[in-house]
Structure formats: C-alpha cells, structure tokens
Amino acid sequence: MKIALVCSQGGHLTEMLQLKEALDGHETFYITYQAETTKNLENAYLVTYPGINPFRIILLALRIARILIREHPKLILSTGSEIAILPFYLGKFLLGSKLVYVECSSQVVTPSRTGRLVIPITDLFLVQWESLQKKYGDRAQYRGGLI
Amino acid sequence: MKMDEIAAKVDEKVVIQGGEATIPVQYAQLFKYTSVGSANSYIRQAKLIVSHAGIGTIINARQFNKPLIIVPRLKSFGEHLDDHQLEIAQAMAQEPAIRVVYDIKNLENIVREMLNFIEVRSFISQPPPKKASLLRAIREFVEATD
Fold first, then answer.
1. How far apart are CA B71 and CA B48, in angstroms?
2. Any long-range contacts for B83-91 (C-beta under 8 Å, 24+ apart)?
3. Whole-prediction pTM
4. Could you give the CA distance from residue B69 to residue B94 in angstroms, rounded to a whole number?
5. Is A36 helix (H, G, I), strand (E, B) or coil?
6. Contacts of residue A124 in chain B, CB cutoff 8 Å?
7. Cβ separation of B128 and A146 shorter than 8 Å?
8. How far apart are CA A38 and CA A30, in angstroms?
9. Which of A124, A141, A144 is the closest to B130 by Cβ?
10. What is this model's ipTM?
C-alpha cells in the first residue's frame, strides 16, 4: 500500500522517523518542508513554507494536489504541524485517502491548532498523553507515546 | 550567548546549533543547522545536551541515553507564540536525567551538576514501552486499511 508521510522539519520529523517502523513493508513518500534536515530524505517532495500569504497557500495547495493525484496514497500519516492541513483535506476529498494524525508529544494538555482543524476528518487521531485525550474527546485516542 | 560564556568556564568542548541566532561566539563551536544524521552524531558523542524543549532533541537525547537540560522558550521573551514548551518541560521534569531551567542565571550551576551525573544508564536503556503500543495502534490501522 502507498502511504504519504506528511510532517514539518524538526521535532515532527524526528517523531515521523520513529513511527516509520510501524509501516514496514509499505511504500512511502514524504511531503515536508525544504530544510537542512530534510534535504537527504529519500522519496521526498520538499515544499516551501507558505506562511499566511494567501497566494502562496493556493500555490502550495495546487502543488500538493498534483503530488497526491500522481502518487495516489491510500493512507496519509502526519505528525504535524500545519503542513498536514492541505494534504489531509485534499487527500480526503480528491482521493478518499484514509487519514492518520499523531499529535506531537509536545502537546501535553493543550490541543494544537492543526489538531483541531484536522480532527473532524481524521480516521485515526492519536494523542501521546492521556491528559490531552480528555481535551479532545471521543474522536481522539491515547494508545501510548514516544517519550 | 549564555552557553558560550559557560564554554569558557567548563573543561568541556561545547558545540552549539544556533539556528538563526546572530550572536557571535568565542569559546564554543557554532553552526546554524545540520542534517538529522549529523545532529544525531553530535548527540551520540555528547556528555550532556542543553536545549529548548524541542521534541526532536528530547527524543534523541533519550534514545542515546544522554542527560538533558531543558531551557523552555517563553512567550514572555517573545521566543514563541505560546507557552507550549512549558507544558512539555513540566511533563519531562520528573525524569531522573532531565532538569528544567526556568531562570537562565541557574544554567551554569545546573550544567556543572549534570556533568557529574553518572546514573545515566538507569535513565533509559530500552525504548519506552509506550512507544511499542503507539506503533501497534498505527500498524493495526494500516493493516485494516490495506
């Protein structure tokens, strides 16, 4: 099965690299930001952080739509952060991809903005602290954490 | 830069990933950013890690059994949009090989204390059990989708 791995550079990428073991035997590709930490990743589409510039967000949405149509992932896994939003909504509504979001372990009691935006359409929403599961409610599950 | 001042006073080599910081250093070795592989190799060689509460560093310090000092970025210093680093810093503070520094004036003393920290082995020698169960949750879902 083809799986898209979506994360920003930094801690979100570190978490993704740890979770990747769970995907052994599947074909994966990354969608991540262009950065020192991501330039040597294999099978990676490196995109530019659009900030809050609406024009750049539209360009990024078009680029991500093209990547998703070309790769056709059956599942999209993200460890955050906001880079997840476009692939999740586009993947769900263009391709019907299944969505798995793992909230970053730095969120102990406060839901992230990205988490709140994607939880309504996410098929498996995992948090890494029990205290956070209570904040999100029934759509979120606590099944363990990386730290 | 505080760690540069400390580098002048302790008998250890100090390597700093400074990111966008533009303050010159005199005693430490400074670089901006590096690849995941090379960051891991610095961490593996280090005796002690000092960092903001970035999750990548916390995970890697634990993975390589290194004592860690966390200096959370604070909203009050305009370092972050919110105080989310305080959350993780407080959650990690119970760990035996982790110290959290809220007042930078205490950093030097805590660095000295932690350099003498010998019980690192008891810190974490296996992956945390909670990791296996998180991986299992993902694997189950992936298999059900496939």
1. 13
2. B84/A106, B84/A107, B84/A110, B85/A106, B85/B52, B85/B53, B85/B54, B86/B53, B87/A106, B87/A107, B87/A108, B87/A109, B87/A110, B88/A105, B88/A106, B88/A108, B88/B53, B88/B55, B88/B58, B89/B53, B90/A108, B91/A108, B91/A129
3. 0.90
4. 12
5. coil
6. 137-138, 141
7. yes
8. 10
9. A144
10. 0.96
Q: Which two tokens stand for residue A70?
A: 């070309």
**CA-based nearest distance B30→chain A, Å:** 15
Residue A77 CA: distances (Å) to CA of B15, B54, B55, B110: 34, 21, 18, 39
Structure tokens at B56: 């990548």
Per-residue model confidence as pLDDT tens digits over A4-54: 999 999 899 999 999 999 999 999 999 999 999 999 999 999 999 999 999
Residue-wise pLDDT for B7-65, tens only, equals 999 999 999 999 888 888 999 999 998 888 888 899 999 999 999 988 989 998 888 88
